[in-house]
Backbone:
């Protein structure tokens, strides 16, 4: 074997349930040391230290503070932007740098302490964490939301994802009730996986009929979407096979990235040619499997990104996977049950997959989703070396449908949702509407129309749009 062949040799995960818990810097240090110990690598020898963006706290020098804690002087350092694909992109870049002989080892870590932040907030106290950035840096978007989306208040995933879900539902010919029942049947088995995962945030087995708690972004219920307010951390250590040999890492502890790929849909939901499906997912999967020299049938285990059901469904549609496949859709329990620590989840799924492949050997698929189902990563991991890594160059970039900022007149609903407040009541409707020249965003505020939107299929219905030049309001 080429001594530059990259392999994953160290893994670590932590979940803190006692509140208040430690700050992200403490969590980064804890899992970094644990992963390095698992890899038999002294932390001060790390060539690269990379951290996934944390929503919990903005440090003045995230990587610098961690390196200082570890006593390391890495020649390569990186702090990412926001997005659920970021862990795999960092891992893929580190593996590529190792294969090129640029570095010998790399740590990729991430942590969120949003549950602790919530505990301090509820107590009316300020978070007493260290090394705050001053001034606070701008949020880590790769690009900000479209002005038309901002004008309509449509930028939260809990609202954009159900819009795509309703579009898929209508395209599949499902009724509202059929979609909800099918979603519960798909997601209930994930709770069983989470219950067996010592790092899962929610470890209670739930039956399908127990996943219908209050709506958040209709038709999604609170129990079927990612749980963000968690205190969780994870880390992985990658190294060259030559270094792994010198460290005495057993062969059955080495897991190989056989191939991975990245693809993009449009950045704006309204600009997506087909709201309910994703050619980018299909392209990423095809490229990753092709680079790995393996197929879906070869996978012994799967972890499909599960922030919302539409992410699971688009993946299953694109790769021809039965959502009730006996292999299951997750090795962790998924973001709604194992935990959805902002941009970090794929570090947890990768660490869990690596542990599973160490125990039973074989091949595993780990996927990531970023932003509003915009960014997609597919990674094939294996106990056996081989394949071709690939890189971060997108294998698909979607063509955009023009967004019409202000629109008056008739349009046809392409997808929609109804936002619900903390008390469970419907507050506002968000629509993506086909209009002459492209697509438009619109809101619905009439209480009677909001009720009707949840009782009958609105996709395909003609609506009347009025506009003040920035905000489009729909009625029918």
Residues:
């Amino acid at each position: 074997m080429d001594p530059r062949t990259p392999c994953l040799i160290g893994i670590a995960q932590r979940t803190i349930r006692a509140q208040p818990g430690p700050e992200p810097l403490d969590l980064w240090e804890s899992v970094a040391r644990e992963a390095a110990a698992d890899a038999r690598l002294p932390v001060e020898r790390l060539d690269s230290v990379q951290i996934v963006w944390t929503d919990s706290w903005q440090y003045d020098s995230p990587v610098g503070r961690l390196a200082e804690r570890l006593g390391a002087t890495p020649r390569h350092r990186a702090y990412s932007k926001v997005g659920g694909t970021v862990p795999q992109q960092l891992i893929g870049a580190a593996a590529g740098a190792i294969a090129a002989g640029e570095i010998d080892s790399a740590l990729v870590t991430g942590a969120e302490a949003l549950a602790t932040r919530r505990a301090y907030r509820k107590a009316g106290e300020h978070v007493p964490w260290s090394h705050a950035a001053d001034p606070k840096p701008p949020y880590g978007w790769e690009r900000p939301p479209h002005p038309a989306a901002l004008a309509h208040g449509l930028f939260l995933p809990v609202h954009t994802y159900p819009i795509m879900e309703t579009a898929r539902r209508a395209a599949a010919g499902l009724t509202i009730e059929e979609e909800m029942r099918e979603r519960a049947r798909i997601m209930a088995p994930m709770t069983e996986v989470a219950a067996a995962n010592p790092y899962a945030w929610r470890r209670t087995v739930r039956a399908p009929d127990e996943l219908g708690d209050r709506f958040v972004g209709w038709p999604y219920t609170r129990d079927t979407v990612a749980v963000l307010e968690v205190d969780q951390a994870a880390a992985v250590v990658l190294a060259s096979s030559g270094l792994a040999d010198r460290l005495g890492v057993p062969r059955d502890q080495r897991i190989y990235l056989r191939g991975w790929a990245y693809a993009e849909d449009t950045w704006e939901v309204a600009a997506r040619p087909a709201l309910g499906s994703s050619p980018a997912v299909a392209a990423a999967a095809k490229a990753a499997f092709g680079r790995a020299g393996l197929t879906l049938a070869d996978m012994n285990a799967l972890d499909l990104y599960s922030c919302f059901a539409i992410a699971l469904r688009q993946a299953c549609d694109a790769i021809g996977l039965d959502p009730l496949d006996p292999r299951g859709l997750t090795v962790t329990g998924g973001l709604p049950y194992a935990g959805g620590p902002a941009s970090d989840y794929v570090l947890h799924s990768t660490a869990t997959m690596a542990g599973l492949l160490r125990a039973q050997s074989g091949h595993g698929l780990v996927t990531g989703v970023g932003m509003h189902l915009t960014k997609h990563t597919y990674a094939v991991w294996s106990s056996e070396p081989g394949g071709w890594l690939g890189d971060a160059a997108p294998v698909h970039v979607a063509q955009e449908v023009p967004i019409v900022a202000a629109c008056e007149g008739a349009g046809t609903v392409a997808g929609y949702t109804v936002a619900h407040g903390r008390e469970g009541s419907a507050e506002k409707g968000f629509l993506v509407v086909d209009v002459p020249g492209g697509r438009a965003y619109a809101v619905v505020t009439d209480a009677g129309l909001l009720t009707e939107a949840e009782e009958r299929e609105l996709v395909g219905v003609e609506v009347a749009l009025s506009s003040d030049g920035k905000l489009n309001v729909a009625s029918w």
Observations:
- The longest strand covers residues 409-420.
- The two ends are 66 Å apart (CA to CA).
- The mean pLDDT is 97.
